């Protein structure tokens, strides 16, 4: 695996694969089985696989959340090498944002709901970095998890709106044995919180109404941001000891 931090260098490398299919998996690092499932799929479906590890500051509305976000690049590299990934892209902020984020992608409808209500600017930062990464790598396919379904739907919408010739592939949510959706942030949960967190997916899947679920979560030690059903999907975001967890289920 080649680990590249410079955009020019990565572009020159990828030029040699113009006739092959390049699959791309963007991540913010602290890799777990959820990321691995996307990478394994990309390996099966493409000749060359590029994974990026970039903790994108523009999608964090809260400084503490960014500072406390887990990072484990050395371990990530071991995982990626075992998976036979071809290229790891690890750009700096300066490399990705020569404009210092004066140019941004803005979606004005769905991005204002759910997480977009409480995390101002989050989806704009996310869409902007994904657009930049797709423009640099120009993959045939890019892989995203259904765990972040709002992100997935917004990226699909962006690719359609800007006529980008990239197939967005969605992969199912990988869960811990207790049903909790895997997330880099789970590393920060205490073992007690991790155990208690199983109630969140159980309630989302239950037959109860959104507001009954909110009441029950709040009574059980969670602080609920939202539980809301839209187009047959129930979305939820909660805090457990100030760590934000999101999930969604088809109902
Ligand atoms: P992140 O590093 O959290 O930005 O995630 C990078 C990619 O991995 C995104 O497309 C996520 O939706 C996906 N992902 C994260 N957690 C999971 C999971 N538990 N199952 C499936 N995909 C996931």
- Beta content: 15-25%
The ligands bound in this entry are:
adenosine monophosphate
Quaternary status of these chains? single chain
Strand order of the largest sheet: 1-4-3-2-5-6
Helical content stands at: 25-40%
How many β-strands, per DSSP? 9
The total tally of domains equals 2
CATH topology of the largest domain: Rossmann fold
- Low-confidence spans: none
- How does CATH name the architecture of the largest domain? 3-Layer(aba) Sandwich
Give the overall form.
globular
Class based on secondary structure composition and strand pairing:
alpha/beta
Radius of gyration: 18 Å
* Order of secondary-structure elements: EHEHEHHEHHHEHEHHHEEE
Gap between N and C termini, in Å?
41 Å
Question: Which SSEs are present, and which pair or pack?
Answer:
Layout: E1 2-4, H1 7-15, E2 22-27, H2 33-45, E3 48-53, H3 63-68, H4 73-82, E4 87-89, H5 93-96, H6 115-118, H7 122-137, E5 141-145, H8 149-161, E6 167-171, H9 191-196, H10 199-205, H11 210-219, E7 223-230, E8 233-240, E9 243-250
Helix pairs in contact: 7-8, 10-11
